[in-house]
Amino acid sequence: MIDYAAIAEFYRPTGLRQWTQNLSTWLPEYIQEHIHGNFDDWQAVLDQLPTIDNCTLDLVNGAILQGSTDSAQLEASLRKLMPWRKGPWQFCDTHIDTEWHSDWKWARVAPHIDLHHKNVLDVGCGNGYYGMRMLGAGAKSVIGIDPNWLFLAQFKAFKHYAPDLPIWQLPIGLEAITDELAWFDTVFSMGVLYHRRSPIDHLTDLKRLLNKKGTLVLETMVIEGDENACLIPHDRYAQMRNVWFIPSVKMLEIFLKRVGFKHVRCVDLNQTSIEEQRKTDWMTYLSLEDFLDPNDHNKTIEGYPAPLRAVIIAEQ
């Protein structure tokens, strides 16, 4: 399930050596306690993926695999891992049109960061789409963490065809990393903060994983307003129960400075459209259009401001 040996070998000469060596000690027990009941079925899908001959990889222009294969079998297998939410992915002739146009978000983030030769931690990495794009942008290595087991299966489907890529995904949440690692050059937290009951604690946890010259890339929902403005939904926000705290950009900048970040700046602000997040043939459940006021897409169905997303860059 997790290639502990490959992770330990890659990071052996680095400051992450001890932590990656220890993974094989504690992570199997953690997995045993938290594994999803369907993962054996998803693993069976992965074990039966068809061969791709003359396989080539393009991570600069997307998450793209090219080569010759049994396209019908490949698509049938990948459909058993639905719903696909982050992407798009290209497996030869099979284009996975995901719920999110994550490539649009990446296009808004990428111009503001330099990932060349950087070691990256992606917190709440989803199915690894952004991690693949980070490698395409020059990252030396990527570790993604996300407790969602279907996302792990989707990640493994792509890496099945590119096993030597220096990217690994661990089925854990940030709370499972109890060490003060202070090692990563760049830490991403994209679409996570508003799901945390304590945003200050989340930012503090992210900071302790960065080295002394490290950079945080924070992408999250915000609301308009001054440094005193925030939204705490009474119950659901856009039908999500696990949205706790949506600050203004100014308030979020204060949070980051209070926990010790410097050079804090908002580099992008964008209201999510129903073209960027929508149901597709690969994600057939309800999506953003169903969660907005049908008469006014500037409001959620509950009457709150529609999702406005900011990209914040901050440094140690």
Description:
30% of the residues lie in helices and 26% in strands. The protein has helices at residues 4-11, 17-34, 39-47, 71-79, 102-109, 129-136, 149-159, 199-207, 249-258, 288-291, and strands at 53-58, 63-68, 89-91, 94-96, 119-123, 141-145, 167-170, 184-190, 210-222, 230-231, 246-247, 262-271, 292-293, 296-300, 308-315. It has a 7-stranded mixed β-sheet, sandwiched between helices. The protein has a 4-stranded mixed β-sheet with strand order 1-2-3-4. Strands 10-11 form a two-stranded antiparallel ribbon. Helix 3 (39-47) runs parallel beside helix 7.
Question: What does the secondary structure layout of this molecule look like, with pairings?
Answer:
Layout: H1 4-11, H2 17-34, H3 39-47, E1 53-58, E2 63-68, H4 71-79, E3 89-91, E4 94-96, H5 102-109, E5 119-123, H6 129-136, E6 141-145, H7 149-159, E7 167-170, E8 184-190, H8 199-207, E9 210-222, E10 230-231, E11 246-247, H9 249-258, E12 262-271, H10 288-291, E13 292-293, E14 296-300, E15 308-315
Parallel strand pairs: 2-3, 5-6, 5-8, 6-7, 8-9
Antiparallel strand pairs: 1-2, 3-4, 9-15, 10-11, 12-15, 13-14
Helix pairs in contact: 1-2, 3-7
